[in-house]
Amino acid sequence: MHMKTLLLALALLAGTPAALAALLVDVRTPAEYAEGHLPGAVNLPLDTLQATIVRHAPDRSSRIELYCRSGRRSAAAAGLLRGLGYRDVHDLGSYTAAAQATNSISCKKEC
Known about the structure:
The chain is α/β, with parallel strands linked by helices. It is 40% helix and 17% strand.
């Protein structure tokens, strides 16, 4: 089964519209991530993103949402992913802006 098909099936089972079934990526450092992150976010630091993204989003049409501390690294990550051929990339900007956009609160460790 293709990853996108699996994600769509999981979204439908959860009652979530497929458009909301995005990969939420925190591109901050592991130390920053450990201090608090958004629920469901995976930590793929900007300096390792190119090497690690394919494990989490092998389908280049996957929806990917990015955030960091201030918005600078997430903007750089968005450009990097678009350069790699990802077509549905969304820069949520800063941690605060991403929390507001996703109606989330911070998690410590695992959520």
